[in-house]
Amino acid sequence: MITSEISNGAFTPLPKKKTMSEEVAERIILAIASGEQKPGDRLTEKGISDAMDISRVPVREALLQLESVGVLAPTGGRGLQVGSFSKSQAHELREIRLALEPIAFQRAIPLVRADPGRLNALDPILAELAMLAGTDDGIRVADCDIRFHREIIEISGSELLLRTWSNLEPHMLIQMCNDWHYNSDRIGELQMHRELREFLFEGDLADIGALLDKHIPKIAGIDL
Description:
Layout: H1 20-33, E1 42-43, H2 45-52, H3 56-68, E2 72-74, E3 80-82, H4 87-114, H5 123-132, H6 138-156, H7 159-178, H8 186-202, H9 208-215
Antiparallel strand pairs: 1-3, 2-3
């Protein structure tokens, strides 16, 4: 018997399954974000494949992908090392976001106002942020933040913006989780994201720069 899980349509999108290399890359990013792996720590195919009990092929692909976006850096020998995530890099990341995200809002706003249902994709993330408001799970809060802004970029319909954002996501997660102050006000974090949702529906586009400047955290980074 067909269950009610597909009662809203048999041909709805299937959940995208991650490849093994994507899963490995995500695990490495989370290890860095949580502080389990620190700047300068060396990572090798053998060490990770042994620890995860998998072959070296997906590990190699994950390491190369993270090197290509600057999360990992060459050691001068075998293997790679965790990048520095310095204060200057944190400042540069914020500047890049302040340049990119107004473009996403400019493109998304007319689409949202023509079809307000596009905003529905943001609501599960806001619900998750509300649930996390009384917890100390900084990684999940940061992940929600990043997914919320990614949804806005997806609403904007710009593939180039989305590809650029995807390359920045690991850096954002790591920098956010390495900055204690970023995670201190969960209720305020939830409210700011609600304001962004409301702005997409009825805000004045001329105000988007000031709103994002207030919203995007001034992350301190790591002083090495």
